[in-house]
Amino acid sequence: MTSITRPMALALGLLALSCNNPPVDPIIPPPPPQAARFTLVLREGTVQRISQGEVLELTLLATRDLDYTGTIAFSATTPVGVVMVFRPSTILSSEETQIRLVVETRAERTLHRITLRGTDNVGATRDVVLELTVDEGS
User: Fold this and answer.
1) Which of 3, 131, 132, 133 would be 49's cystine partner, CB 3.0–4.6 Å?
2) What is the rounded CA–CA span in Å between residue 76 and residue 80?
3) 3-state secondary structure of 15
4) What is the DSSP letter of 17?
């Protein structure tokens, strides 16, 4: 071997050694989340006004796709001083839940955007946003 071919042979040998790694499985991204098979609508509308210390009753309607017969569970994150209770909190055969919204006197007087969420039995969700304006109580 000449002085030029020796480094090339050494480099090819190192290249061959570095190619002996075990094959790596390709990274496969998870499938996209399944779309919820129902829709949600507030019967009384998504814009409401209430005074501190008052109670508001609403109805959340769930319309299921024809092929969906599973459960729908309801939840919401409310601001300080606003308490929301779903009756019932999970539906199986019915198409609606009643919401009792209590606005305490300590609730901030402002516009609150409250996301009401329905979650089906495989974790797919639908949201509806309630725009709740809280006024000063009397």
Assistant:
1) 133
2) 13
3) helix
4) H
